[in-house]
Amino acid sequence: MNSRKWLAGIAITALLSTAAYAQTAASGADTDAATTSQAPTSKKDARAANRALSKRVKQTLYKTKGLQTADIVVFGKAATGQVTLAGFIETEDQEKIATAAAAKVQGVTSVTSKLTLQEQGG
């Protein structure tokens, strides 16, 4: 059962990673001055900023009551503040709690949920 969860998590991670990689950068007209002035200057800096945003969100989720049993992976795009949550939850309430908690993190402008409700007893 654990190997299924692990394999499904890897598949979701790979799927979301390729989708994020395929996206093009927003044009200057679509981004506001605050995000543009804080945009990283190199790919290495952008990846570091993305990891830092994802880590802040993950830490917040870890500390949030009601999410202890959830298996959530965070993908963040620091330049736009977009965060995607993926993984498995046990109740629909956990999705609401997770998206609300992630939205409160500094630097997050939008949260997309790709969370999957895990079947009980299967």
What do these coordinates show?
The chain is of the alpha+beta class. It has one domain (2-21, 43-117): Histidine-containing Protein, Chain: A. The chain has helices spanning 2-22, 33-37, 43-63, 92-103, and strands spanning 71-77, 82-89, 110-117. The chain has a 3-stranded mixed β-sheet, with helices on both faces. The radius of gyration is 15 Å and the shape is elongated. It starts with a helix and ends in a 5-residue tail after the last strand. Residues 18-37 have low confidence and may be disordered.
CATH fold node name: Histidine-containing Protein, Chain: A
CATH class reads Alpha Beta
How many domains make up the coordinates? 1
What is the CATH architecture assignment?
2-Layer Sandwich
Structure characteristics:
122 residues; alpha+beta; 4 helices; 19% strand
Can you lay out the helices and strands and say which pair or pack?
Elements (H helix, E strand, L loop, with lengths): L1 H21 L10 H5 L5 H21 L7 E7 L4 E8 L2 H12 L6 E8 L5
Parallel strand pairs: 2-3
Antiparallel strand pairs: 1-2
